[in-house]
């Protein structure tokens, strides 16, 4: 097991809907979020929950990865989740009444990282049947759902209007190490000095746990020298 996989199982105990799939930790947030298209990029911030690992909305590269997600039991049936994909720019379909259909609706769907950069096209084979259909214009955000049918691994992504409904963010974490603001990365751990005056080691331990971490344990002079 990797360190990330072990931490992912810890999140599963906390959230009850986390899975480690192909080297990626996926976590489905409990609370639905309602955002506008303009505010959608801020959803990536909801995925900063595992210190030491970069969190972002999920990126689904292909159908085999999607099937493995379904097999993991991560997704609830008939529940929709935000992933890191949206349509940008939205095609101008004024010549057909402003509602894009068919091949026009399939244009410009990309996955985005937490910095707002495009990191890949949305594969056509991860869409649900007859999607995207832009039934509630403008459906410019992608949501993932697992469908209820005889084949329990059926499902895919739909286009949705974020202004009309709230969905649960689906987050992913990779082995790319990163630290949240205020922490510094030393080797494979994140450290932060908290300027308080705890009266004992037990009190200091409590302060760190309230921060979401643990009291630093230094076992060698080399690490001590690096921190100093």
Walk me through what this model shows.
With about 230 residues, the protein is α+β, with helices and mostly antiparallel strands. It has 2 domains: about 5-175, Mannose-Binding Protein A, subunit A (Mannose-Binding Protein A, Chain A), CATH 3.10.100.10; about 180-225, no CATH class. It has helices at about 5-15, 65-70, 100-105, 200-210, 220-225; strands at about 20, 25-30, 50-55, 80-85, 110, 120, 140-145, 155-160, 170-180, 185, 190. Strands 1, 2, 3, 4, 5, 6, 7, 8 and 9 form a 9-stranded mixed sheet that branches. The longest helix is centred in the first third of the chain and has 13 residues, at about 5-15. It comes from Pristionchus fissidentatus.
Strand content: 25-35%
Q: Rounded to an integer, what's the Rg over CA atoms?
A: 21 Å
Q: Which term fits the overall shape?
A: elongated
Might you state the CATH topology name of the largest domain?
Mannose-Binding Protein A, Chain A
């Amino acid at each position: 097991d990797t360190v990330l996989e072990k931490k992912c199982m810890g999140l599963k105990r906390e959230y009850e809907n986390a899975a480690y799939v192909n080297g990626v930790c996926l976590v489905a947030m409990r609370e639905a979020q309602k955002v506008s298209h303009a505010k959608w990029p801020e959803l990536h911030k909801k995925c900063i929950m595992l210190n030491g690992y970069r969190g972002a909305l999920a990126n689904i590269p292909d159908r085999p990865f999607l099937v493995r997600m379904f097999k993991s039991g991560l997704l609830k049936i008939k529940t929709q989740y935000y992933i890191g994909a949206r349509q940008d720019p939205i095609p101008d379909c004024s010549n057909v009444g402003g509602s894009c259909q068919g091949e026009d609706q399939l244009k410009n769907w990309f996955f985005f990282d937490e910095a707002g950069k495009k990191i890949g096209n949305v594969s056509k084979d991860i869409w649900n049947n007859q999607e995207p259909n832009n039934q509630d214009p403008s459906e410019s955000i992608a949501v993932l759902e697992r469908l209820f049918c005889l084949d329990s691994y059926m499902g895919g992504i739909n286009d949705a209007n974020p202004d009309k409904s709230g969905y649960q963010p689906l987050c992913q974490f990779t082995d790319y190490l990163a630290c949240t603001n205020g922490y510094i990365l030393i080797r494979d751990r994140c450290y932060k000095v908290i300027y308080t005056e705890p009266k004992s080691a037990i009190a200091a331990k409590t302060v760190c746990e309230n921060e979401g971490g643990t009291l630093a344990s230094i076992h060698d002079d080399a690490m001590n020298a690096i921190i100093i």
